[in-house]
Specification:
homotetramer, alpha/beta, Rossmann fold, Dihydrodipicolinate Reductase, domain 2, 7-stranded mixed β-sheet, 14 strands, 20% strand
């Protein structure tokens, strides 16, 4: 069976990545592409790299006939997404890639994002989209909230350690390095090539990055107590890839064993042999997440490093994985492509 | 039916690209990977980005049982390739990615490469591997010689113009820009990141690049007279992609029409609407070649620009396309993936 | 003696480059920095890399007391510059880095830039700022029009060849590759890191780039007849540097000799030994221009390649060189720094 | 007065950086350049970006007449340096940029570097070259051991905090990101452009990087007790720049105050206003080190971030600063150039 798919926000980077992946999916057809600011343009104009595909032109979102859509991906900006989703048919299956439905507590949402939530009803039914940990709920969900790309990386590294009780919950540091496509296709001076290439810096230092809302929610739920990590993101001169270096207190072997056990049967999460380290270039363009563990020279301290492609496993690949579950398609369908190296 | 495939020279960039593509090919299985200098290592050690694949460890070439192989890709260095192929079974189907069998005239080979050919017999049966122009011969061939990546780019741009007689054959200039993976994975000071990034330069200036041997052979055969182009390659700070700017004398509309007609039914060669220009980033990681045409302000002069990924359509993708033909598999199988952007 | 200097448009890349250079100039003091959109900000806010300098905060241009200024650099956008300069004191020495005063013929200006010139009177006294060829006029000038960065590169390569009569004037092709800072600090989608890095493309193909107005004006004046070159610029994934590959018809030795003779006494123009090729990385951050010559395999054809830093010799370094002349300071003062490599 | 200077190891990146800086130094003349593997070549051959300088050709080290040299920089590889310095005249002033004389305890040297020290006598008189903290000893020294570039960065961030007693000495984490020129000009597969660009990874994870020997020596001496930090370096796709993110336990304001006080009179160490963050692009090519401080959301935890150019303040700039002191030249001479941005 082939399902009819819509993408809202098709002119951004996560939209392009969804098209790239779905174009080769044997059970999905792209029926409608919405992009308000570029409506009327062909995909060849907006994304010349996709010009070989036979795709419909971009539409205003309200021009789309959702009755014909089996599942809709929302790759819209934060805040816009909740406004749009509030008006979509109530029985439409939706995978949202924005931040709008990730935080279950509307108060937490307001704290991190600065505005009252505009779709509180829809929020109640949203399932958090970290596939490997919410698989069953996602399969039954109508609305899935894709995780933040940084939040996904950190959770893949840390959730099994919290669950297994092998690390000190009050001493977790995540030093994360993210490529520039994570910031989207928006016109900001600090995203210009001349500002970014050949340099790097930290941002949102001190615990102000919004993905901390997800870490707090998920890690605390998992531990049954408040868990607050330190998290410092850095912007790097590359287009794709997140690498996060985690500093934890716990026995290295126990940390590695907990991760290896947690992901033994996961097709996309690869725990490297003890002592081996991942690299963003080894996951680029793929849906894989590589995790490495090594013990520090200081006894009882362990370094955990995770790497994934922010546009694939960090957002659009994850979204497709969730959509597969929601449509009862084999979970890995369309997602087993190898990374692009060099 | 599934075919059993070997790759010799699996530890270089074209070898890695072959594995990436073949891993998803529905009718091919990678049975043997040869790489003399890294024999004994697993693919995860040599190419960690391919560690999710269930592949055999690297072997010495003479450890491979070629009786079980349906088709063998040779991704070995120039000169090594002819020595190895001379010793392989005489009925083994081979796609060679090196320069060794591209020039039909052994004297021309010696002129451009500086040594006598060591496999003159095998050379006689070799078919030039530019798929779109040698399709029938390739389908019947035992040994196919993959083209140079620069040579492929230039020929896609110029062959239809020579055939159609729409340009001055004595006034052709190709100014070509190539990414660094074209130089392979060899340890040379000028390929270090610190030497290359943030800079660019021309090399082999003045008509000394070996791919001119292919241009001379092919264009002259096509024209029925000697055709010698000017060709200047430049090295650019990027990993993948060739963009060649061609300066020809002929009417822009006739040039565009000749290209459009020649490639109307080709799945991988995309002639852009008149006046649109290609970019390497729109073909990266794909088997597509984009070609644009625009008229210059000087009457009777036309600029033709072609772009492809040197590792895919320029070598390993082309090789797989040829292998599909040789094994009577649908030609586009395993090659329709979209480019990776950004 | 120390001169008092103002920079208008101090918040762009050419403004920053002027500050970098003048900060170390022994006979100049930066008295006023104008930048309307960022007026009120400190230089540390606008350019943190200049925070060690003791500089005045940015001002609105009309807040500046020009009576105290010995020389003013205008690094404003095209069109804005002529409007501002028309209102500045008529005896103020000015070096303009915009395109506004480069074309002597107001009609030519209108043709290339699309609007009537708003400062025709000032235009009459403007001297074209290609230092090595207008040195005496510049020393006596009140208003000097800095050249385009591409126009400078091409003229350094070609003027001596036209003057010496060693090339065919109707067969000149300039294939130019420019880094991204040449496009300035403006917010355009195609200047984002994720759009530019790892890729390259041609733009303004077919003879539409505005710097052709300068080539036409200068080359024709030099030759005493109309000279129209073919010129194709390309955008490269690097921050600084222009490399232009020139295809001319003429004897290689004569071409090299003409260049060597023309620049024998020039401190900044380096003609490489015959057969050696320049690289942008060897001039980055410096005021040098390197030029190489090689003969093609086709008799009577020669390749000339020039390289310079678009922000230094291509604009701000050139501007300072001109200012030195206008203030009767030794021409090379503040400009002999070595390139930054790697 | 002008001093006569020699550089041994002039063909590497730190050698090139020394030449770049000294070429503009008003009181130094480059008299001899040693580079055994490239002896006989001109500087234009080895470093075309320095071709405008009037410099002697490269020599074998034993061809140099050290009697005419006032001060010698050794930019040789580790281990080679000690062997060469052991044979140099005993009264020659030397600034060594290698790791060979940084560790005062020969046993510690052997532990970190794996071999017995071959110049134990010379080691005894060596002064550790972190200028801002060993200024007086350096001024009187004959042999100064330049610090590691990572070690310099971390010490600038942490020494004042240890001295002031404002942080927990057992809870210091340094997550460091280094550009590729820090690895030198050596031919290693992992330094190729195609391997490095568009990706990043950690290396020497777990406390195995040799610069930890310097941290241990210096921090422990400062604290009067053993201090062992956690240190994880990462390799980034850029040519120059180190950015280190330090996680400490202490009050943010006290941390900032301690740094501001320590560096109030230092010309090269810039403590940013509280809450501002440095970037490698704001120090590139300069001798400045920028340090920023911000408090984490977790009470009592502070993030300190330092940035410098590994080739300048991290090695060759520091070396020149030390040489100035040793020759009784004003310390900042030749080192006040602004960073190169973009």
């Amino acid at each position: 069976m082939t399902y009819s798919i819509a993408i809202l926000g098709a002119s951004g980077y996560t939209g392009a990545e969804l098209i790239r992946l779905i174009a080769e999916h044997p059970q999905m057809t792209l029926t409608a592409l919405g992009a308000n600011t570029k409506a009327g343009q062909s995909i060849a104009e907006v994304f010349p790299h996709l010009r070989h595909l036979d795709l419909p032109a971009l539409l205003q979102i309200d021009e789309i006939d959702f009755a014909k859509i089996d599942l809709c991906f929302c790759a819209l900006p934060h805040k816009t997404s909740q406004e749009v989703i509030a008006r979509l048919p109530g029985d439409l299956k939706i995978v949202d890639l924005s931040a709008d439905f990730r935080l279950r507590d509307p108060q937490a949402y307001q704290t991190w994002y600065g505005n009252a939530h505009a779709a509180v009803e829809q929020q109640k039914e949203a399932v958090y989209g970290l596939t490997e940990f919410y698989r069953d709920e996602i399969a039954r969900a109508r609305l899935v909230a894709g995780t933040g790309c940084n939040a996904a990386t950190g959770q893949f590294m840390l959730r099994p350690l919290i669950s297994a009780g092998v690390i000190d919950l009050d001493e977790i540091i995540l030093d994360l390095k993210c490529a520039v496509s994570g910031a989207g296709r928006s016109l900001k001076e600090n995203l210009l090539h001349a500002e970014l290439s050949e340099g790097y810096h930290a941002y949102a230092v001190g615990g102000t990055h919004r993905h901390l809302g997800e870490f707090d929610q998920e890690f605390s739920a998992l531990a049954g107590r408040a868990v607050k990590v330190q998290f410092t993101p850095h912007l790097l001169p590359a287009n794709r890839g997140i690498l996060a270096t985690g500093y934890v207190k716990g026995a290295p072997e126990a940390v590695h064993a907990a991760l290896a056990a947690a992901y033994a049967d996961e097709p996309f999460i690869v725990v490297l042999p003890f002592g081996e380290m991942p690299s963003t270039r080894h996951v680029r363009g793929s849906n894989f997440c590589h995790i490495g563990v090594v013990g520090d020279r200081l006894p009882g301290r362990t370094i955990v490093i995770g790497a994934l492609d922010n546009l694939t496993k960090g957002s659009s690949g994850q979204a497709l994985q969730n959509a597969n579950l929601m449509l009862d398609i084999e979970e890995t369908t369309g997602l087993m492509m190898a990374p692009l190296f060099p």
